[in-house]
Design a protein that fits this description.
Layout (H helix, E strand, L loop, with lengths): L8 E4 L2 E6 L2 E7 L11 E6 L3 E6 L2 E2 L4 E7 L3 H7 L6 E8 L11 E6 L3 H13 L5 E6 L8 H9 L4 E6 L6 E2 L2 H10 L5 E5 L2 H14 L3 E4 L15 E2 L2 E2 L6 E2 L1 H5 L7 E3 L5 E3 L38
The structure holds flavin-adenine dinucleotide and FE2/S2 (inorganic) cluster.
The site of FE2/S2 (inorganic) cluster (FES) has 12 residues, from loops.
């Protein structure tokens, strides 16, 4: 297990803090996850409950790593009960990561808990010579996680932060994808990095294609093995755990199911919008121009056999 992928290992929660309504960060020390690349994920085992994928939401310094959990069901609910001193079991890091070397003027778009995947990217970019712009969206200000870390980067002049709330409680009123579209319209960005509900990703893919700015996006799918064996995370022939979770524009454009259809625990196909894929709790783009249920991949015909494929 020299790269941390082979076996589960116990780590002790050392710092636990609420980040937003129903969202907790759990920080621990682990020499493998502390060397993850931005966008990679860990498999977190809660004995007697389940093993689930979580983005590595903090990478270093030293051997520090963290996950940031939004409670949506049994396993995430159990993780919200973790206190400092408790143990969890981890394996990883797994999956692809954001490629940002060639990006000079990046725009990061985080929908809800998607910030967990993007915050280490923002920090890595800011540690170099770039000043990324980051849109953080949520239904209301109390539901946007990791805002303190983003605020600290902004205060040091290393991040331009744009909040987007659906209820107008902070920043601009509206969806993260709408705020991103306005920013992209100003022509100041040469690349987009996104993580959030799949309808948001689908909307961004349409915008990116239209204006000719490349998009990398992290996707969520039901995962069991996390290492490319079981097939539960498949999307249009790709496995999110092994080929993703971060996909480039070419792969995203080939996904007919993007923003439309996913597999549930039993392997049955269900509409993505049955639950906000990244835990925003619903489909924030539903029914809006440029996004939502049934929009799917803007580069693909919608025909198939209806939303269930
Ligand atoms: C690569 C990756 C990174 C992730 N990172 C984070 C993170 O940083 N923080 C975080 O809070 N969550 C993250 N998730 C989502 C998290 O893994 C799921 O919310 C979790 O597995 C749900 O488990 P549960 O037992 O609490 O809920 P369950 O009881 O299993 O499910 C509750 C509901 O959510 C649906 N659901 C479960 N898992 C998924 C999924 N993967 N995609 C879409 N719908 C699903 C179920 O069908 C059900 O409707 C990530 C997922 C992936 C694939
Ligand atoms: S989770 Fe098993 S193949 Fe991806």
């Amino acid at each position: 297990m020299r790269d941390g992928r082979g076996e589960r290992r116990a780590v002790r929660a050392e710092e636990v803090e609420w980040e937003a309504r129903g969202v907790k960060s759990i920080a621990f020390r682990d020499r493998f996850l502390s060397r993850a690349l931005p966008g990679q994920f860990a498999m977190i085992w809660i004995p007697g409950v389940d093993e689930i994928p979580m983005s590595v939401s903090r990478i270093g310094p030293g051997e520090w790593a963290s996950i940031t959990v939004k409670g949506v069901g049994e396993a995430t609910g159990a993780l919200l009960g973790i206190e400092a001193g408790d143990r969890i079991w981890v394996r990883g890091p797994y999956g692809t990561h954001y490629e940002f070397e060639g990006s000079r003027r990046p725009l990061l778009v985080a929908g809800g808990i998607g910030a967990a995947s993007l915050m280490p990217l923002a920090e890595a970019m800011a540690a170099g010579d770039r000043i990324p712009t980051m849109v953080m969206g949520g239904r209301s200000i109390g539901e946007i996680p990791l805002i303190r870390r983003a605020g600290a980067l902004e205060a040091s002049g290393r991040l331009r932060l744009v909040l987007a709330t659906e209820d107008g409680s902070a920043g601009v009123r509206g969806l993260a994808s709408e705020a991103a579209e306005r920013l992209l319209g100003e022509g100041d960005h040469d690349s987009i990095f996104a993580c959030g509900p799949e309808p948001m990703i689908a909307a961004l893919l349409g915008i990116a294609g239209r204006i000719g700015v490349p998009l990398q996006a992290s996707l969520e799918r039901m995962m069991k093995c996390g290492v490319g064996i079981c097939g539960s995370c498949s999307i249009d022939g790709l496995r999110v755990c092994r080929d993703g979770p971060v996909f480039g524009m070419g792969a995203l454009m080939g996904m007919a199911d993007l923003g439309r259809v996913r597999m549930d625990e039993s392997g049955a196909k269900v509409p993505v919008s049955a639950r906000g894929a990244a835990g925003e709790g619903g489909s924030p783009n539903a029914g809006r121009p440029g996004g939502g249920r049934g929009q799917g991949n803007p580069f693909k015909p919608q025909a198939r056999n209806g939303p269930m494929g």
